[in-house]
Input
Amino acid sequence: MYRAGQYPLSALGPVTALWKPVIKGQLGVLWIRIHPCIADTVLSELVNARAMLQEPLVQQLRIDDISCDLVSFELLGNQSTQMLCSILSHTASPKSCGASILQAIQALPSPASLPESVVLALRIHDPRLHFPFKLGAEETQLLPEQRQHQLDEVLLQWPAGAASLSEAGDGGIWDRASCASDVERRPSEHSLNERRHSQLIPGAKLSPDPNIDVTVPLLLIRTGPEALLGSRVIKTASQLVDNLAHGWTLLAPKGWGMSLWMALNFAGARAQGLQERNHVGFEAGLSTFPANWPGTSAYDSWAGSIAADEFGKWSRRPPGKRTNYLQLGVESPFSSPFHTLLGMASSPATYPEISTNDLQCRIRRLRKINSDKKAVASATTGADDGDNSDVDMGDPDTANERELGAVDTTAGIWLVSGERLSAIVSLLLTAPHDKVTLVQWAKPLLESIRGHSCEDALQLLEHALVRVRLICNGRGVPAKNAPIYIRSGAPSTSPDQAPVGVDPRRHALIGYVMTGSFSLARGCSMAIGACSLKGLFNLWKAGHGIQLPQGSNKSARVTINSMNGGPFIEAILNVIP
Output
């Protein structure tokens, strides 16, 4: 999603749209699922877009914030389908479309076998009646002929056989008033415990009473790499994605979160935090929002806060014990200066400052202490003014303090993603290497953008970023904010040896690393970064080639600079679709 009237610039972030099935006599409803950090921005942009259009039908649109009316759970992994089938087996309508599909796909070993972006609707009985749940036994033998035939029929009709509306004719989870009424009149925990106490067999599950108990409408969304990338994933690119990225998203009305949470935990699900969720996406080789979405305001805020914390931690260490980035030649250790890479102006005044007031006071106090020490040392020992050990150790009081601590803006950056990459891929593989300019090379990309003349085409391409995946050949882990260069010199004789005696900084800088770590799924170091479109053009002209989703045999070998003075890291570059 982009700001109104500013496409392809000013991207907001990835969104997921859910349309309510059209029912005669009712208004259409569209749900937009977004990241919480851009919820207020997207809501204001929708209001502004409605105000920009003067059509009467558009002015009648009603925009509501329902983020507090729903709860959602994201289940990832090979056992996510089996987990959902165990929890949602007690459906109120066993013969409904969603229930029959869920029962048929229970034997599938992984949700990656099913297409993404499919929505299933079903109603289940109160999950507290059948608590605690237990994960069903895994299918280790061949399915019976009848079940295999049922599974084949469901897969052949997929996703035409799916439905996002209850077959009972009600609104299901789309009817917020009905969902709120069901939550109000559901039995309390005390009444359920009394019913359990009156059971003849201790520990027996409670039977649903239609006069007392209520049903819970749910939506199941088959999610995967497309939800993280914000675009479609072709078959070749999906082979590079680990199964951890595939799963389901469970949507339920407000008030049923704790019941479903306890049911999932007792069935064997393990909760994870935001850092673990981002690491799962990293292991799958995918970019996560907002950490890997440069060019968005959410990335600016996230990168600014992280850089301020890291700079504050670094500046609080004694000069003799902190990393001397000036000596190592690292220009921006705390942030990725994409605006410098793209030749853009400095950060605007609205961008968050790197230092708080307390940190500024500390810097001024350190300056006074250091100046007093130098004055005393000059008077007592006769040291000349050239004795500047504090500056050599990377003191933030130096003239390069602004370069070390500044956070660069990504406003006005065009993040190229989605189906437009396929045009670049085909042109990279088929265009000749002689007499080709950047505009000619990216002509299919420009043709897919409407409203941009040839005059600003070059400026638009020079401000474009492309996210890449970097697979390291040898030792070393790419650090965050590490610069990416075109590889220079001959390749190393051993994968564990970095090029010696060759400084890649003499060649073109093409991008920066945004996330880097050791990948347990691949057994080597990996990184997610962003390169300028002009840098990839120079890489293609240099004859290194680019390994792209369409299955090119060539591979782009780049060099990643070490942030701690170690050897340079060689890596293979893959463009993320």
Observations:
- The first strand starts at residue 16 and ends at 19.
- DSSP finds 22 helices and 13 strands in the chain.
- Confidence is low (pLDDT under 50) at residues 348-359, 383-410, 490-502, 547-553.
- The longest helix spans residues 357-381.
